[in-house]
Amino acid sequence: MSYASVVTGTPTNQSSNPTRSGSLAQNATSHNANAFPPQYQADARTAGRDHDMASYGTSSSQRRGLSFSSHRQNQASTVPPFWVPPYLEESRYAKKLEAAYNARVRALREQDATSSIASSSIWNWSSNARIAPSHRGMTYDIIESIPPLEDDTIPLPTRLSSTDKHQGLDLLGEGLEVRYNGPTGKDLEAASIRSDHPISPQCGIYYYEINIRQKSKDCAVAIGFSTSDFSLERLPGWEPKSWAYHGDDGKAFEGQSSGHPYESGFGASDVVGCGIDFNKGHAFFTKNGRDLGVAFRDITFPSTPVFPCIGMKKHTGVLIKVNFGQQPFVFDVKDKMAEEQDNVARHIARTSTHKLHPRQPTEAAFTQELIAQFLSHGGYIETAQAFSQQVEKEQQALYGSEQPSHSDIRSPDTFDARPRQQIRQAILGGDIDAALDATEEHFPGVLEAHPQIFFQLKCRKFVELVLKAARIDKSRDTLRRNKHPGNGAASQPSAVDDVFESAMELDEEQQTSLNGHGKAPMQTNPESEEYNQLIAQTIEYGQSLKEEYGEKGNPEQDKILHDIFSLMPYYDPSPSQNGHLLDSSGRTKVSEDLNSAILTSLGRPSNAALETLYRQTESLLDVLSLEGGPASLVDLERQPGEASR
């Protein structure tokens, strides 16, 4: 498995790869175990890569538990870390790739968890079940479905293709070095090679470099980009749908045999870069860190994607190393990227908001109204009132008390805001029962009208029980370590040890109470008693959830129940397959969903206007950035001048 295969969602246990639809899709093909990573070819596009990878998962020592005592390597444990070139790390497309990567990793983990849980006893709790008294809590974020990988989300180039190349070229250095090893050809004969993946216009700006390690005097080298149907027996730039900068004469070639003067040539020991600005439709090249300027303007990109492409005339002794961002670039493309982002952001900042809200005379007034409505919508009463008062003071300072107000800011209506605030605070504090009671008291019928949110709240209550048990357990572990100090792993009790210890204690207590004689009852720590009671309560509540929802045949709810129940047997569930559920945003997610449901029942918008505006803008940017353009350089989370340089 590889990073690329994770992003593209390729099954690791199949020899062939699934086809993908969309404008960028081509038929899939398979490769042997010695092949370089996934290739995008004229007639094939694969998404698998077989090579050594960094470990991504947990060790067996971290996965001790009741039903998971045996450990086997799974799909998710072989996933390498997410990677994009550093200059693209803050781009929209990098975030999109990372989201697809995380979704696929999560799907792999859930597949592994499902296969493990199928053989476990989690779904067969009984009143006599004894759970190890060493559990760790977690927070829980409801996952309703795994987002599918979109057709327009493809990995960035990572190396040269092992198949999409001239047969006389040999790949070295994990697919990042290439040399010609065939017979010397005629003057117009050449050998070219493309990268493993195409370039997405959503990058905004894409850039890569080559280092000419060796080159004979008579051999010409070209760097550029082409589509997959460009002939690999020609230098890029000589044929349609290819663009390149040639080192022998310094000319730039744009799909024809005659080029135009561009710069001086390049040769051995030079580092040459190629960049595409999808915002302006330009292509540029660099030499030893110096920007050579625009080589091609107003490029009409074909409907098929373009790939980094390098070529050389058929002469032996040529060795070229390619850098797709794995190593620092000689040219500071990160600064160029930041400059373009700032230019687009400043252009947006100059755009008037009057058409969005003609009733508001100024952008400041429009912004203030959005903020006030957001605070009121969320039930932040005190903050909303303070904000309203501050805006009023500013209005009076600017226009005087006799002038009409230019703002529609009003103090929030506390009739329903107070109860909503109470419910939100209860959920954020982990008191789900209090939130449920307050909802039924102030907004009866809401939970029945929104059964999925009701289900989320009940699952959250189960999580809070586990969290409470974990806090007690942590205190017990601290006392135990202080009472029996020691070094090394032997001093740390395992979950299995705790199971037998707890079982023996419970058996002795039960025997004494049943027989009425024998040894005196064991003196137990109050915290131990509280812990045992809490574990019993958690199991009982889990059983009730299973009885209420586990037999309904709802796959999504079954999956959620499997996930939260699967964390119980672990000594430390954080590194387990479902460790991502520990994220503390779980409470916030449930509170926001319930608040939206309450507002809907009152005939109000379920989302704040500011949130709706943000989501609509993000959706528009996603669509507009598919073909590049300014949208590919927009990030709503940054302001002009904030890009890392």
UniProtKB/TrEMBL annotation:
Domain B30.2/SPRY: 138-329
Domain of life: Eukaryota
Domain CTLH: 420-473
Chain segments carrying region Disordered: 1-79, 394-413, 505-525
Alphabetized SUPFAM superfamilies for the sequence: Concanavalin A-like lectins/glucanases (SSF49899)
SMART domains: CRA (SM00757), CTLH (SM00668), SPRY (SM00449)
Feature: compositional bias, Polar residues: 1-33
Low complexity biased stretches: 59-70
Any Pfam family the entry gives: CTLH
Function: Involved in the proteasome-dependent degradation of fructose-1,6-bisphosphatase.
Name of the featured protein: Protein FYV10
